[in-house]
Design goal:
single chain, 0% strand, DUF2798 domain-containing protein, transmembrane, DUF2798, membrane, transmembrane helix
C-alpha cells in the first residue's frame, strides 16, 4: 500500500509530461487529419479524445509495467505485462474518457466559462 502511494507522484509527473510534450500535438494532428472539414462538434470531441487516450494508454502501460517489474526484477515478462496491461487499460480508459470524464469536465468548464464570456 505504501509503495502505491509513493509511486503516484512520479507516475502523475510522467503522465503530465507525456501528455503535454509527447502525445498532445501529434494526437491532435492525427485527429484533425481523420476528420472531415465540417465534422460535428461531437465527432470532433470523440476523435480527439480517442487519439489522446490510445497513446497515453500505450505509454503509461509501459510505465506501469516497468515500475511493477522494478520490484520483482522479472524483466523477461516486460512485453507480456505491457501488452496485457495495455489491453485492460484501453478497455477501461477509453469508455471512461468518452462517457464520464470528458462530458463531466466539459459541463463544469461551460458552467464556469459560459460561451461568449471569455474575450481574447
Amino acid at each position: 500500500m505504501k509503495a502505491s502511494w509513493l509511486g503516484m507522484p512520479p507516475a502523475y509527473c510522467c503522465a503530465l509530461v507525456l501528455d503535454w510534450f509527447v502525445v498532445s500535438g501529434p494526437a491532435k494532428k492525427v485527429a484533425f487529419r481523420l476528420l472531415p472539414t465540417f465534422a460535428s462538434p461531437l465527432k470532433t470531441v470523440m476523435t480527439v479524445s480517442t487519439c489522446m487516450v490510445l497513446p497515453m494508454v500505450f505509454f503509461m502501460s509501459l510505465y506501469g509495467a516497468i515500475e511493477g517489474l522494478s520490484h520483482t526484477q522479472a524483466w523477461n515478462q516486460l512485453l507480456l505485462l505491457w501488452g496485457t496491461n495495455s489491453l485492460k487499460n484501453v478497455a477501461m480508459a477509453l469508455p471512461f474518457q468518452l462517457l464520464i470524464a470528458g462530458p463531466l469536465v466539459r459541463k463544469v468548464f461551460r458552467r464556469l466559462f459560459p460561451e461568449g464570456t471569455i474575450l481574447d
